[in-house]
Amino acid sequence: MSSPSHHERLSAVPTLDRDRWQPTILDPSAGEDREQLAALLSRVPGIQIADVLQQQLTELMEVRHPKEKLTGGQAQQLITAHLGGSTQETYGRWVYFPWTEQLVRTLPEPEFREVRLSRNRYKITPEEQDALRQHRIGIVGLSVGYAIATTLAMEGVGGEFRLADFDVMSLSNTNRVPCGVAALGTNKTVIAARRMFELDPYLKIEIYREGLTAENLERFFGHPEPLTLLIEECDDLFMKILLREQARARGVPVLMETNDRGLLDIERFDKEPDRRLLHGLLDGVSATSVRGLTVRQKVPIIFRVLGGTAMSTRLAASLAEIDETITGWSQLGSGTMLGGAVATDVARRLLLGELNESGRFYIDVQNLVADGAGALVNGTAIATEDTTEGGAASEALAAAVGRMTSSHERYGGAPGAISVEDARFLVEMAALAPSGGNRQPWRFHLLADNRIRCVLDTVRAGDSFLDYGLSAAYAACGAALENFCVAAHSLGFTTQVVRFPNAGDPTVAWETQLTQSGSRAERSAALQVLEARCTNRRLGHRTHLTAEEHGALAKSAVSAGAELLLLGDDDTALEALASYIGRVDRFRFFCRRLYREMIEEVRWTPAEAERTRDGIDLATLELDAIDTAGMHLLSKWSTVELMKRIGGRRVEDLGQRTVRASAAIGLLSVPGIAAADYLAGGIAMERVWLEATRLGLAFQPLAVAPYLYARLERGGGEGFDPGEVRELTELRQWHRELFGGTDPRAEVLLFRVGHAPEPRKRSLRRHAEDILLLDLES
Asked: What is the pTM of this model?
């Protein structure tokens, strides 16, 4: 006869009961309960019995006689007197926990709580403990909520609980919910209720294992008596908002602990019936408005809820990896346990009337306990300083204001044959030219004999790691020259241009002498195109360039001595370009020097953009709310550094989407790699861009790859670490496979063209008085 298989042996073992969560409490002095106790003992042969009543009675006597150090005999005498003639066999209660098949003897409820909470005194007075037991607390979401629920029960905060969560325990939950693997597959409310009953079997607990629904929401909030506190810890955005709407309508205060930097929100709807949801962070958002949103569409709202850029570096990095390398945002057991402690402390003080205000609070352990933050170092108190902003920053601002003032004074000098108004207009038109990071690396001088000179502003141009040898700055000055000539011709001037007129000073990019030779056309067609030219980052829909558009763009490049290569006619080629551009973007993000430069270029608010009138206005990036949230997430190097360590690929997404929406990807180049070649390349760049504008095409510079390769090849990779040099070398090879070419050429611009709506915002330029100086003595 064969032995039973492994499966057969397992089948013979009773399966774990995943549904039972309520203890049975039996009074041994009551006849009916004694009968149930006997039936239980016969029905459950493997029952585990813990009769620890004697120990509890002894501790009760010690609690009631704290001054006396009771001997065993003295304690027993007090116990006998306390029982008043009753026997221990009929005293107390038997509590049966069916999920563990344990039968435990305890004190009656009042004495049980007296002993169990005796060490709370006098952090919580007996009167306060009684008051806390009268409160009804609802908890929605039992991951962080588990820690809160069990800590509340442990501390005796609340006497009645309503727990809601439809989810079951999974293995990945056990990193933050302290339950064993035997509980896997069990509903989270069941697990939490069991643990709370094990701490205090006399609690009143109601569970909503199906979660909250339209059918049970009313009962959860109001039956049989209304909640006095709601603790919201759910993941679902719809429910998160709906619960607040319901709590506000019913005057129930809300707590939320976010398991990141100790973030805690208090919303006192009981004291502020018209309070905006989540301190106004959910303005314009209702539960019904988010119900049909995709996960991606919810990201900007979740970003606000989680604290925006105030969230921790590691959470920010993990959010960027959701659905890429992880399935949900990261949470730690330490953060969950901290959340349970903080929320319990706050709930206790709130319910006792000691804490009355709403607000958002951080209990950030990483900042509070950090190198240099200790109150004592080697037994010595650390002196603290009351630092205030200002100092060097204020001095720098004052110096900048001083420079502006002196610029205005110089601008007010006597004009030459060219009127100040004409000079100002021409300079304003020249300054509409594009420049890397919108640095505007130029100054203009109005000289004698109707000459205007463009000088490289080395302060603005010289600190760019990306711009090796000031190549991009020279290209920008070339683009400004093209604009200047277009504007001058519209005023009836002829231009006699000399490039690099001073052999000993390469910062003098160009100089032109103006001669009035024709009538003015205040807004010629060419000038209107110049004023309309801008970077358009809106994506639109992919359509191919027509033969006429392709030919016109190529012809404009040739007219300036440049070569234009346009790729992406077929989808396969475009996909290869998208992968390449995404990788270059990723390299730029993960190279710390390039990253810092890129972030410093961004003007994060309209006020900042107006104040500086340079850099990249965030609004011009044409990001949707989701990508805007992502941009804010990536605004701290610590976040990006962590993403780099975990191999984050999300930074490639936007560049790839941009390429896929394009009609073509263009590379503009000119022979040679000297400063004069880049100046000529800038003229060609602006000429091609103006032609694209005339044709109604959206035009956007893309990856900064050509300037990275300039530093790699002509600068020997100076400034990059060995790993970055290797990666950049691989990218360069990929670039050549896509675009060809090995001879020394100035690759001036990599860009996209396509068909898209008009941009919603354009970058600003500095005022003429900040860049034009009168130098009529020269």
From this structure: 0.69
